[in-house]
Amino acid sequence: MFPVSQQVRWLVDCDSFYASCEVYLNPKLRWLPVCIWWDIVIARSYEAKAYGIKVGTPIREAKKLLPDNAVYMKPNMTKYWQISAALMSYLHEKCLGVEVFSIDEAFFEITKYDQIYHMSYPRIANALKRDIKKKIWIPVSIGLAPTRLLCKIFADIHKPYGEHVALSPQQIDLTLQELPLADIPFIWPQTQKKLTHKCTTAYDFKALRYEYVRDLLGKNGVKIWLELNCINAMNFANKKKPRSINRTRSFNPDFVTAKSAVWSRLSDNIDKACEHLLDVQMATKYIALHFRTKEFKRFGVELKLPQATNNKMQITKIAKELFDSIKFGEIVFRTTGIYLWDLIDATHIQSSLFDAPHHNIQKSKLNEILYKINKKYWRWTIRLWELGGVQKKNDLFEMVV
Ligand SMILES: [Mg+2]
């Protein structure tokens, strides 16, 4: 009925990524229980996990369970994104068709790599894992399988710093027979409830009839069932094109009055929104800046553009002019953000009647180069002057628009 995947994929998934980054930044933390927290634990090292600390454990509870030598840290997302960019850049060099799934996970297709490298797939996985540890200093686990969901399941099996390869139907069935139903990604508790009388393992779910799964669970359940049956049904690279992009960040718990501090937070949102726009290859016709005060009052400014654009320099310049037009007074800010809407496909951008053609080409080329460099290394490798400085200016090249 459906074509069975003949492909070989792998998922590279960093082990306890935030905690591993902190160990990389400060090797003295190695072997210590490390908790990254923000009211609750958002990441922990395997040493902390051994004490029963889970993601989501309130920090007070964690402190009761952990020994005195445990280390508690607030997340440093800037650094984590830098390390993630280094890893993704390394992976792009090694393999074609990288699908970045999250800050610390990426899929690739590696069909026939065994013939190209004259090595078995388990040996390739092991060699890649060791090479990443040597060059990026972050431990990863790898899952090899015909479909993405199976890769994700297999990457979790021998964590940390493990790999699991199952490509033949027999190997896959043997692995799934050992896997509890609850351990299948994207099977939420309500779905589990519907299945409990029929299945206890992932293999039981895989062996159900297609029509039964379709009628009981609908489209999403079918996708999981297909992937378990080695049929490609999930593609994380082809995400739906959005109709709008919104980036908002709150100042909570520290409210802000200074105009420069508001711009600093807003500029970060503008940067991310522009990057998202270029990721999905769309262009915007409207730009709006929105704010919320400490008392939850909302206000904003917006502008309809004469032509749709995805040019970061242009969007930043307009956003800065809109921002400067606001009279601030004594407002205490809670959140700020940017909203881009009425998005169109970037290939449909019309050039301005009043710009010389070569000027337009130069601008779009510069935009593309900026995007590629920042994508390859880190999103602030080259930062627009208008967006303002960041904490460590030494790392950056600044650029005047
Ligand atoms: Mg991970």
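The first helix runs from residue 17 to 25.
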